[in-house]
Request: fold
Amino acid sequence: MSTVRSASLAESINTTLADLLEQEPRLLLLGEDIGRLGGVFRVTRGLRERFGEDRVRDALLAESTIVGQAVGMAMSGLVPVCEIQFDGFTYPAVNQLVTQAARIGGRWNGQVSPSLVVRIPTGGGFRGVEHHSESNEALFARVPGISVACPSTGEDADHILRYAVTLGSPVVMYEPIRLYWQRNTPARAPEPARSPTAARVVRRGTDLTIATYGAITHEVLEAAHALDPDVDVEVVDLRWVAPLDMNTVLRSVARTGRLLIVHEGSKDVGIGAEIAAAVAERGFDALRGPVRRLAPDRRPYPPADFEKGYLIGVQEIKDEVLVMTK
Reply:
């Protein structure tokens, strides 16, 4: 497998949003500073000039208002794609997402199927201050009525966005900040996802499965390549954490007999706990050892000077794999 050079995550999202704005006249963007500034990470740069301020709208500095407006727009037949500047700024909008957006389908018994996308930059690795580096995807993954995605490549971000705006229910897409301008994609197996919400096996292996998603997928792949040929690691990029594609994970575990789950959000009551429980229920007979999780402890994200000790790195992944396969 050779290294694939592709557009960065930010470039891919920008191109996809431009295509969607051109193809779907009902679609519009809204968020803090996304118009004239192009967003805090410049992901929407140039879109306001191209499509006008009615389609690319600078919103008030109020996340509850942004999502609340988006809910109303979606119920009126528009297709809003809104941006929250950082994942730690999402909390003021929890009420609108959980008590309004997530319940639309059930409240109207399926007669109203609004498409609504909330884009959220997520994760650390760039020395951000408080509220700028969190990974709170598990908060929304447990809410019925909300789908949650977290791509690790620009290609997957493109696929997720194009699917999300047609889904007819709310989608939260977490975008790993430290991947926004990363241009080199690690080597990946050319195995397409089985469906728009399916996981992808991005590296084939026989000794152990690692299930992961988002930015840390790249550290997992680097660790897997470094361990080869001593340990042959299979890597499953989940892509979506709600719904979780457990079938792909279970098929992989049936081949390898071991499972390690690696993610950037805190370990306790995280996505890894749900995967571990599901494998224990549905794939126990295939296991040759206990399922293990590798994730940060449950504590507030540390100041920038201590970030390196908080995040899971390549060496920690390699050490955990060696413990599991010795």
